[in-house]
Design a protein that fits this description.
- The structure is a single chain.
- The longest helix has 16 residues.
- Helices cover 32% and strands 19% of the residues.
- The protein is α+β, with helices and mostly antiparallel strands.
Amino acid sequence: MSEPATPAQIEQMLQANRFYIKTVVDIHQQILAGGGEMHSDCEAVLLDRGSQQADLWGASWNPISQEIFYESLVNLRPRQNRSMEILDPSIRERVQQVIYKLLGSV
């Protein structure tokens, strides 16, 4: 998604996990895929659409609290990020900006 989500789209994305939305953000293209049961579902969508692996970061977003959780298996990359949690503050900030832009203002 590259445009802000509608309330109906948010509801649809919440169906997989009920209280939060798993997302993968392409920080280069400033787009995201959300709503899969696993972050890897979202990652696959973006890879199929031409995103580069190094630009993809997983996070979960709670629409009630507007809180972002920066943990996902897709973030575990020995050369780039040695944790399931996004460790680089600048990458976290970019992920946050895209999530709030596309999901957070509904």
